[in-house]
Design a protein that fits this description.
216 residues; Rossmann fold; five-stranded parallel beta sheet; 5 strands; globular
Length: 216
Amino acid sequence: MSCHHPRRITKQLFVTSLRARQRRHEFTRQAATYAANPLVADRSQLMRLVQAVRPRPQARVLDVATGPGFVALAFAEAGCEVVGIDLTEAPLAIAEQTRQARGLTNVRFQLGDAEQLPFGEEAFDVVVSRFALHHCENPQRVMAEMGRVCRSQGLVAIEDLVMSEYPERAAYQNCFEHIESALPIKIASSSSAISPIHAPSLLARSWRSSPPVDWK
């Protein structure tokens, strides 16, 4: 029989809750700026992701950590039935405004935690996330949840930043990104990002969505 120390559990829960509040605060503060970022809003880049996934018409798509909703909206414009979920209300308000402006009725947005997705198993044909995983406290848990709600023979697609395979260079790059974003960040290398240990039920393959950055 195992025994857990109550104070240790309470402290761990408190730290997790504090970090979650910090993330909500920063994403609320940066919501408008992030939505205006050309890297995030560029429709040609969004369409490259949709084309890489190649969803069938009316496929059920979940966009995890949807933020201002650009990925969800791109899949909706491709004829999919889409749900966008995010932990913070401010970017979801921007997403809903954009949805209304574009007159889309096949996409909706809701609050939710990527580490505890409020959906049953195999609820979606495609589960996607873009530029979000490196902000997650527990990316392994997020990927496991994405796999859980994706149907058998469905597709989980993650587009994210990747770092150097060299530890010292990767540490420098993570430090730089943290200063730029003012948010907790942990960006993985390409090999570790698609490692099966992150989500044993997922079969990984990768593609490059943009040219590499020269950090010399």
